[in-house]
Amino acid sequence: MRLHTLTLRDVKGVKDRTIELPEVGVVVIEGPNEIGKSTMLEAFDALLTLKSTSKAAAARALQPVDRDVAPCVAAEFSIGGLRLRYAKRWLKSPSTTLQILGERPEQLTGDAAQQRVDALVSQHLDTTLWDALRLTQSGDGTVAPLVSSSVLTAALDAAAGSQQHADGADVLLDKVSQEYSTYFTATGRPTGDYRLAMSRHSEAEQGVAEAHRRLTEGMALLERQEQLRASSEAASEQVDRADREVSRAQEASAQAELVATRHAEAQERLASARAQHASALQALQERERLITELATWVSRAEQAREESLAATAAADELAEALTSAEQTHGRTSEALEVAADRLDQVRQDADDRAELDRLEGLVSGIDHIRELVEKVARAREALPQVRVEREVPRRVRALQDRLDAMVLQHAAASPSLEIESLGAEVVIDLADGQGHEVVAPGERQRLSVAHDTTVDVPGGARIRVHLHEEALGRVAELGRLRRSLADSLAEHGVEHVDELDRLAETTEQAAQVLRESVRDVEVALRSRGEAVVGQARWGKMPDALVAEVAQARERIDSLHAARDADHPLPMDAMVARGAVEAATAAHRTARAAHREATERVSERRAQVAALTSRLDLAGKEIVASEARADALQQQLSVARQSLTDEALQPLVDECAAQVTVAGSALEKASEAVRAADVDGVRRALVLARDRSTAAVRARELAMAELHHVSGQVEMAAGEGRQELYDLAVTDLQDAERHLRAIDRRARAARHLFTTLNQHRDAAHRAYVRPYTDALESLGRRVYGDGFGVTVDEELALTARTLDGATVPFSELSGGAKEQLGILARLAVARLVDPDHGVPVVIDDALGYSDPERLRQMGAVLGHSPSADAHGPSPAGDVQVILLTCTPDRYAAIPHVATIRLTA
């Protein structure tokens, strides 16, 4: 495919643009950012893929955001040996038109045109190659795997010297893959009838196993029934033996319990004696505690009285010291207030002095501000009424240059008409209202036929000369360019581009003076706020500043009037600062003396508070000690009335003797318990009862299980399990025969599928060498003889080798990835047949390349066929389209065509 012309009207930010591209070689399309370079190729994609009636988001995205118009795209391109002129309009009054140019022209519209183009694209455009040979702005240089490109694989077949990709191979592989897919999934697992046959065989095996299990289960039930009958009889005998053991254990237990009762009574008598002894001993200890505690509280009361007397004497001495400290504190407080008043006064004097200096400075500087504002006003008045930016003359001159070039191109492509009058006057009517020419008898005249022209020979003939369609298109374009140029000049009130240049220069000079004036005003008034600066920018004296100056003058007068002769303002700021420093030092001294006096008063008060607290504590201690001593004395008196101190010790000794007697009796009872083995007899009775209970339970379980198994035997006898087993074996044999038949076909399909895919993979491996050679041939012109690449079987770049160092492609820098991506696309383009190839499109690449690498890449991009002894050139029969906003990147490309885009 080759792209010849592309026209966009009202597509995104492009109002009306047509570009013509050379069929082969390198063309650079340059223009500033957002001029619509990438939009042009996006529009061509939309032309091929989106129906004119589409309302999809991709179609709506073509419409400009600021105008409610219908986007239109038209292109002239070659594909499949045909040259097409194809156009579409979306969203409003959608339309599709197709013209097939050449010896057998066709004109189609609507769905017929869409279907014809879709058929040509499907048949002749290798979409894998078309997508892979485009490097977009967002791409990192990576080339998509190309092994699925039929055009490239055919070229690599030829380059490899063998026909690895024979005609009909894909069809055969598809049929084999289809047959393989009837038996296996993509991961090699059985599916379809094959999987059903395997499932049926597995189910039949499970059925045989289940039938055999049930048959075996029935035989096991008969055996289990006989075993349970014997177990039930044995359990009944065990119950009888356990009952006899329980009777013997109950008799022995009755005798042992009598001995245990006597032992319990002896324990109770010993416990009572011990309780009486403990009570007597506790009464003796409590009497001794009361006597000791009474003596302690009497001593504490006496000590508290002595401490109270000492604290009272110390409090009298501290009262005099506290009075003296409070008097000193009062004098320092008065001195501190005087110093603070003096400090406030001198600070106010200093503030008034500073305020007066500021106001006088503001009043004295207003004249300078007024001069700056007047300068801004004069600069604004000097601006021309019609202002022209520098970009306007450049844009209009580009339009003039394009018109001149189009006129020369049209004149060169237009035929010339020579008319000689042999006797009659000949009248030549020119088109587009350009009047007419007259050739008198015997004269000859030559003119260029740039428009449709009529030649009248009165009374003889009328000759009409019509331009062909392409020339008519140029005439229409010339008219449009002339109108655009005239409109641009009239818009600015000039008749020539040179006048527009002078007007732009005058505008720029006046704007420069204005910018400098405004900058001076902004610097002078920056601290005044944006509102004040905003008025000054327009050459107007700020109202707020004028009012502030007037208020400043009033404030100056009021400051002078507020001062009397006895207390004038300081002479200057230095004098005011000296007075403030002296007053501050005096205030600091007074504050230190006051702080010291305050601390002394606080210390004395704390001492008085501590003594007061001691007195309170001593008084409370005296009261509490005397009250506790009285309570203890009363408690002791009551206790002695019931039992005297002398009677307590004999009572304790008597209770101890009773404990000894009860202990001897308990020892004899314990010997009798040990001799009777009471615990052993009790355990024997419990064990006998447990064995009897277990024997009864075992007999019940055996009887219940026997009844259950007998019921299962009766049910199994009526199911015919032997017949069911025979049927299951027959079903398994049928499933095995069916599975063997399908398994043979499935294995054959898998073997053929595996063999063909192995051959296809071998063909892919054979493609790697020619592609690698072509890429390394180009890369050595940029990187030198030490350059090499690693390409996998999918024809994707995996690593780059440079001077012996191999780096994975993913770890290369952005610039290196871009350079390799461009070289890979050029290598692919030079390998394929030009009649089946596609343009190489590179959108704003090489932005990360250094100047030397740019020069080398430019030499590779523009290399001519005659200079390459190793094969076709990347720019020979290939159409390479470079989009850029920085044309200097491609300055090193020789013999390059350039298209400059303007707004």
Explain what this protein looks like in three dimensions.
- By secondary structure, this protein is α+β, with helices and mostly antiparallel strands.
- Helices cover 65% and strands 12% of the residues.
- It has helices at residues 37-49, 57-60, 110-124, 127-132, 150-160, 169-183, 192-381, 391-413, 469-491, 497-525, 530-537, 543-561, 573-642, 648-676, 678-717, 721-783, 814-831, 851-861, and strands at residues 2-11, 14-20, 25-30, 72-79, 82-89, 95-101, 106-109, 134-135, 416-420, 426-430, 436-439, 444-448, 453-457, 461-465, 787-791, 797-802, 805-808, 840-843, 879-884, 897-900.
- The chain has a 6-stranded antiparallel beta sheet with strand order 2-1-4-5-6-7. It has a 5-stranded parallel beta sheet with strand order 8-18-19-3-20.
- Helix 8 (391-413) runs antiparallel to helix 10 (497-525).
Quaternary arrangement of the chains shown? single chain
Instruction: Output the CATH homologous superfamily of the domain at 1-21 and 32-125.
Output: P-loop containing nucleotide triphosphate hydrolases
Q: Assign a percent range to the helix content.
A: 55-70%
- End-to-end separation in angstroms reads 29 Å
Q: Quick one: biggest sheet?
A: 6 strands, antiparallel
